[in-house]
Design goal:
Cullin family profile domain-containing protein, Cullin, Cullin_homology_sf, Cullin_homology, ubl conjugation, mainly alpha
């Protein structure tokens, strides 16, 4: 019976992973896992749902971090403008061209750092240097999130980066 339960859990992980990553967490998946949770000896589906919730919260924190960085950058530009009023128009035009936070240039990307303990992740997903394989807009977002994720782990401790 344990072998059957492990086999069922293994295949359910693939199914659940596909549903969660393609459609997002829905009430149905949570309800089903809660109802049949006793069938999963390793509790992987429950861990997957928790990990996804944690990573969605991390994604919200990343978005707030990006907004804070944008605020800092705009404040710096504003302070520069107050000190050099006569050159203000020229500097703003130059800075706007080189603006690293431009919404138009950045692709909208959602990055989730999923735990390999409970998710079935292909070895092809473990990339040391994503810039070799992905377009620059995606690679930049991955790098920004990786930097944020590393900083948040060291700043807030390991409890936020499960």
């Amino acid at each position: 019976d344990l072998e059957l339960a492990n086999t069922f859990e293994r295949f359910y992980r693939y199914y659940l992973g596909d549903r969660l990553l393609s459609q997002g967490k829905t009430w149905l998946e949570s309800a089903v896992v809660e109802h049949i949770g006793i069938c999963f000896p390793n509790r992987f589906p429950q861990q997957m749902l928790k990990n996804l919730s944690d990573m969605e919260e991390q994604q919200q924190q990343f978005h707030l971090f990006q907004l804070q960085q944008l605020d800092k950058h705009l404040l710096e530009l504003d302070q520069q403008g107050n000190h050099e009023e006569e050159e203000e128009e020229e500097e703003e035009n130059e800075v706007m061209e080189d603006e690293p936070f431009s919404q138009e240039e950045e692709a909208e990307v959602k990055v989730l750092a999923l735990s390999p303990r409970c998710w079935t992740i292909s070895p092809l997903c473990y990339l040391e240097d994503p810039a070799k394989f992905f377009p620059s807009s995606l690679s930049q977002q991955l790098r920004k999130f990786a930097d944020f994720y590393t900083q948040s782990r060291s700043h807030f401790g390991m409890e936020h980066a499960k």
